[in-house]
Amino acid sequence: MVLQLLFAPYTPDVAQDDFPIAEEAQRLRRLRRRRKAESLRLLDMERRQKQRIEEMRTIQKKDEENMNLKETIRADVRKELKKLEVSCRNLASLLHSLGIHVGGWPNPMPQEVQTAYKRALLTFHPDRASQSDIRQQVEAEEKFKLINRLKEKFSPSL
Q: Which residues form a coiled coil (predicted)?
């Protein structure tokens, strides 16, 4: 009988005691997978955040370079337009020297100057300038300002 007990097969009572241990091991594996997934998600978020910061720095640097370029171009354009402003005796001569057709040139009537003025505003409006060419943008802005300034200056004579 003692030999029978020694060589007896494994009883199912012991297997039922192991069931909570297997369940606990499975729960721990799921928990490890979740932690690993969360860790990977956080690393990916951090990588994307660093990438966005780098993109923003690049954009800011490019914007700063464009602003510096615009300012140097603006100084050159203002110099040229200042010479033009000094040489013009009235709004019609300014418009004519900017390449705007003024009807009845060299002695236009006030209505002809007014229509040429409106045409010049449309031609040199900053929103109509090429967005890709910085020089054209700056020239349009400065010419637009000059035309408006001289319109106010010469408006009593119109």
A: 21-48
